[in-house]
Structures are given as structure tokens and as C-alpha cells.
Amino acid sequence: MFKVASSGGTPIPLTPEDKVVFGYSFHLESDRVAIVYNEPANMGDLYGLNLTSETEERLTAVNKDWYEEVEVSLPEQYSFVADNGVTVEGWLLKPSGFQERRKYPMVLQIHGGPHVAYGLTFNHEMQVLCGMGKALKDPFELRRPSV
Predict the structure, then answer these.
(1) Which residues of 88-122 are buried (b: 16+ CB within 10 A; e: fewer)?
(2) Where are the domains of the chain?
(3) 3-state secondary structure 80-116
(4) How many Cα neighbours within 13 Å face the side chain of 81?
(5) Nearest one of 65, 70, 74, 90 to 41, comparing CA atoms
(6) Is the overall model pTM greater than 0.90, yes or no?
(7) Between β-strands 135-139 and 106-108, what pairing exists: parallel, antiparallel or unpaired?
(8) Could you read off the pLDDT of 15-67 as tens digits, one per residue?
């Protein structure tokens, strides 16, 4: 979420870039916005953003107890240059209980990006695979040839 002066200018971010806004409601009289974020380690909580002071306050911790019981795999962004010169970017999620030097099965999840690329969000299907002891690689800049 950004603010821009009515006269124009450079947009100024009001929300962190490492969280995805997937719902919001603006209240004109209080100059506040209720925001629901989705982020890699949290599938959704409610925050209040004061537009006057540009301060944010977390209002809920809906799954706090559950998060204390499970291990969430956080995505690590990666990139490489393919044989055709295209830079491929994506996410790597390590399996629960990951240990260096140990080999793990890996799921390669290819899905026609970049338009439907996954972002910095909690993704339940990826977390299930990581919980089953699998690593997950999700490239999102692969371009498929036109048919």
C-alpha cells in the first residue's frame, strides 16, 4: 500500500515489502486502514495502520498456538541464468528438520510464471510437502514456448 501526493510525485510505501496485503478496509473518519497480511511465516492476521502517523499495530495473533507446535519452512529466493540466457528466479523451501549435507527428495513445482508466480506468502501445500521431509523448488520466471 502506497501514498502519493495529489500533485503527483514518487509513491511512498506504507506497508512492509515482505508482507502481502490480501485484504483491507479504509475508515475515512479515523484515517485508519484495517489490513490483513499474508506472509511466509503467518497465513493471516489483522493489523491497523494509522495513516496520519504512518504507524502499524498488530491486532490479532489468530494461529499463535498452532505456530508454536509446528515448524514452518521459510522461502529462500534464488536465481540462475538458464542456457537460453533467461534469468530464472524462484523460491527454495527446505524440509522440516533440515540438516546440512543430508540428501532430501525435491519437488520441482513449475507453473507457468511469471503471471501466476508465488510470492512472500504462507502456502499451505508447500508447507505440507516440507513437513513430509521434501525440499521444494518453485521457479517462477520460466517462459513456455507458444504453441
Answers:
(1) bbbbebbbbeeeeeeeeeeeebeeebeeebeebbb
(2) 2-67, 71-139
(3) EECCCCCEEEEEEECCCCCCCCCCCCEEECCCCCCCC
(4) 2
(5) 74
(6) no
(7) parallel
(8) 988 888 989 999 989 999 999 988 888 888 999 999 999 999 999 998 899 88
